[in-house]
Amino acid sequence: MTPKVIEAYGVRLRENRADDVADTAAACADPLTQRFISGLPSPYTEADARWWVTEGAPAAWASGGAAYVVADPDTDRLLGAVGLSHPVPYRSEAEIGYWVAPWARGRGVATAATRALAEHAFATGTARLELFTHEENTASQRVALAAGFRPEGVRRDASPVRGGGRHDLLAWVRLAVDPPGPAPRPLPDLPDGRLTDGVVTLRRLAPDDADLMFRLHTLPEVVANQAPPVPPTREATERRCRLAESGWLTGVIARLLIVDAATGEPLGSCGLSYTDLPAGEASLGYALLPAARGRGLATRAVRLLAGWAFGPVGIARLTAGTMPDNIASHRVLEKVGFRREGLLRGRLPGLAGTRIDDLVFGLLPDELR
């Protein structure tokens, strides 16, 4: 049976009380809370909070779940909420969820509360906990990772959007048998948020980079060197930039912007993604704006990315696929130490049902120049 009070990791989990109504209303009316928890009433009022305290939370307990206030152990003031829902007894699983009040964000409250409740759930017989995050809610995704939850895929159109439509949810899972501590990350954060050699700097792609990325990746010569050679839409480019951090956290792909180290002027983009995670193999790609070409900047960017891949990431082998006639790209790779490994005939999709050859280069850690 789940206890009514849990104290661990610097937070107190307790039941909802009448004197939590004002704080609950203020927290659930917050724009960020409203954005990422679309099931909340909008606008959220004290009447809604009072219903939750008197009816909603007790119903969660009665259904076999749990509904806790996350409180400051010194003052007992509400900092957030955490709970268990959708229990499936015969599978010994449940869903865990949380929110944090604006006045308590940035203090590790959600991670502490999630760890505390997950450990009590496992101690009382739960074998598997699921956690779902909005695909753009990277703060919540970092909480999931810090609390030991691992990404398990995408639930397509799993959540309604307030006002109409639906959006994807990312699924995260922790098992009772998983080791304690944060979940392993295939793609760690960059040291100090960047990689630099003093001439070029690589940083994570951000939502504000959409204009630049659309301009870069719709250039005819850039389109011609991708498969299939079709320019991205503006909508697809904006989505790629909005989800760049999420793709990094889930280990799907590290997307980076290449900028001038002195001025911050954008130069191009590059990326790293696993091709065979168990084998430690990944692939990289890159593209430069016309004004940045012919100055050795692509070579510097690839060298920085490869060094990070072989170092903090722990990649054992890097590959890069190129169009057979992209001589400039071949020279960049060879300057960094990549070797030609073979021509894969008809490997990639072209236009109108055609196929494109792929000239593959490979690099091992001791070959990096």
Describe the structure.
With 369 residues, this protein is of the alpha+beta class. It folds into 2 domains: 170 residues, 3-Layer(aba) Sandwich (Aminopeptidase); 177 residues, Aminopeptidase, CATH 3.40.630.30. Helix content is 30%, strand content 32%. It has 11 helices and 16 strands. The strands form 2 sheets. It has an 8-stranded mixed beta sheet, with helices on both faces. It has an 8-stranded mixed beta sheet with strand order 9-10-11-12-13-14-16-15, sandwiched between helices. Helix 10 crosses helix 11. It starts with 5 loop residues before the first strand and ends in a 6-residue tail after the last strand. InterPro entries: Acyl_CoA_acyltransferase, GNAT_dom, Ribosomal_N-acetyltransferase. This is Protein N-acetyltransferase, RimJ/RimL family. It comes from Micromonospora echinaurantiaca.
Estimated structural class: alpha+beta
Give the full name of the CATH homologous superfamily of the largest domain. Gcn5-related N-acetyltransferase (GNAT)
The succession of helices and strands, N to C, reads EEHHHEEEHEHEEEEHHHHEEEHEHEE
Query: What CATH architecture of the largest domain would you give?
Result: 3-Layer(aba) Sandwich
Largest sheet: 8 strands, mixed
Number of helices: 11
